[in-house]
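Schema walkthrough. Field components (list of strings):
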Amino acid sequence: MIKLSKFPFKTEKVPPKASDNVSTSLLLQAGFIRQVMAWVYTYTTLGLKVLRKIEKIIREEMDNYGCYEILMPGISPRELWEQTNRWEIEEYFKLPTYDNKFYRLNPTHEELVVPLMKQFITSYKDLPTCVYQIQTKYRNEKRAKSWLLRGREFLMKDAYSFHLSDEDFQKFYDGMIKVYKTIFDRLWIWKDTYLTYADGGTFTDKYSHEFQTLLPIGEDTIYICEECGTAHNKEIVPESGFKCINCGSTKARVERASEVWNIFPLETKYSKPFDLKVLDENWKEKDVIMGCYGIGVSRLMWVIAEYFTKDGKIYWPESIAPADYYIIVLGDNFEKAEQLAKKLEDEGKDVILDDRQGKKFGFGVKIKDAELIWAPNIIIVSDKTLEKWGYELRRLGDKDGKIVEF
Amino acid sequence: MIKLSKFPFKTEKVPPKASDNVSTSLLLQAGFIRQVMAWVYTYTTLGLKVLRKIEKIIREEMDNYGCYEILMPGISPRELWEQTNRWEIEEYFKLPTYDNKFYRLNPTHEELVVPLMKQFITSYKDLPTCVYQIQTKYRNEKRAKSWLLRGREFLMKDAYSFHLSDEDFQKFYDGMIKVYKTIFDRLWIWKDTYLTYADGGTFTDKYSHEFQTLLPIGEDTIYICEECGTAHNKEIVPESGFKCINCGSTKARVERASEVWNIFPLETKYSKPFDLKVLDENWKEKDVIMGCYGIGVSRLMWVIAEYFTKDGKIYWPESIAPADYYIIVLGDNFEKAEQLAKKLEDEGKDVILDDRQGKKFGFGVKIKDAELIWAPNIIIVSDKTLEKWGYELRRLGDKDGKIVEF
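Field assembly_structure (string):
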């Protein structure tokens, strides 16, 4: 239970720093985050709560799909990156050591996960398998490509799957798309999130997939086919004009969106340099096929904040709100309020209790903070409502994005 | 539930790499960790489970004491470290950026937490307060000072407290020692862990405190007064001979130990350079007094593993064991075993199910793995035991360190 009378991370009357978008301003004003330098933030207690709830949902769904969580380190030896010809990539940090050598401060973990899994995958019977981690990544970015972006330090869930055949990979990959849909659904952004075909980049000749959430301030442009609904990243739409890669239609509506997750077929790009092979059932040597599945965890917090911002408030989805219940005490009703808070906590609920006293903390101030911090259930314990059930319960948002004004 | 038939992180018949101590060999052999480079490890699923359970205990006790969890970034701007004259410390990493500047890859977080809290501490009424994080730290270490050590990358809980007066700081500090005792107790190492007086280092002229756990392979030597039991780090025992700083006795027993946590009075060393001041009740300006309270989370996993290693097995404390129940299926009793596993899971227990089939996986192989991985309760589901209660339950260790041989 967080009691606001002792809580250090107070809200501000105005956002403490100018920001180019409303949701970041609100996150700052509500005391969820503080900027340390460009695109590098501290998460204070309430921001961290939101982040951890997003992590928990991702973790549950990944575990459900039979993936195993691990934690790889943030630094790694240069040799691993030379083996894949990725040591000299400009936007990957090099970290000088005391003896004039360099480590890598990891921007991604293919170079670590393949040598790791090579120690455990010794037979085709060990396939398929999939491991994931929720880990901080670092990129030596020159400039922000948009309002939020991955920044120089960001939290990601990255998963890596290993397969004997392309067919097996494809089956797993299709299943992962369903897992991602479930995660999005639990985060309440599925209805405006599109599975989007994108360039495979350096990873593959095939298309990769991104999940793009519609946002007016999004950094990406996507083309959604008017006939079949297939979404295309702008980068794969030829200059000659749109043509749907699924149905061939030339009609599309164009939307701004923000990329929250991407998934890639890695084929044998990383298994080959590390010689990750197995013997198949016929004793034939095969390179292991890989897939990789990212989710920008910290980015997702920003996207969700922006998506649910309306009229100067962030209406957090119930599943990741900083608290389940926000209890405002008016008058001298502290004891009753605390009893209620404890009861809710015993039921496994997250509770914020606004027990601040004094003339400065009247109803107006308290309700303004409640709206800024936000919880799906705001309870007001006053003399009047005590006569009824001890509290009054108001739900401020619901899953379909419909917002009940307070 | 982890089913070993699909679990990628298999045990090894022998430790996969030579190691200079038994517990690290066992952690490697059991598949809990893999080394990426010297003192830098990947935690695989079971190692990560142990680590997360240690984190959870620490988090619960810190929250209980009224501390607030936050998450500060891993990198920070050079300017912050110049303000405290710590930019040029050799064992702190400098991280070159694309434009030939440098960030710091953070070895500790005083330079971040003070500017952060300065935004929230505006009055003496905001004091005392304490924030903490569980975060990865990086050090440009030249060599290992012992078998485990903090290494180049390690997980720490670091807490920072803020006070108006020395008296208030002292009161909070004494309370934190009790919190640490509780944490140690929940980790079952309290009876051999000593609150040890140590040098204040660059932080303070006073003594600092360390918690040292007795271990024959520990990196430290401590002197325990024979009269009053006060423990002294070797570094504060003069060459002229031991004299207890508490009772003056000159008799001490000397023990090897490993430092698991330390706590420091920071006085105004970091509040001054960042000008963190408040007005007191009499409108007098005062520098804020600080304390810092560390716990080596990853180090603690190693220390506990070593402490509980006996006869080539790690008898993990019940509170942090990789699983609560380890179920071995013999014969064709999969269905019964899975029902039992599900029942235990519904009760909130962590379960490992050894459902591996085939001639390779007889009783001998299965029980050997169970002992290597370890759970406080090992259940064997066989035809015979099914006739009774469906399983046979054996407890292999208990809190007082007494070990019931299997």
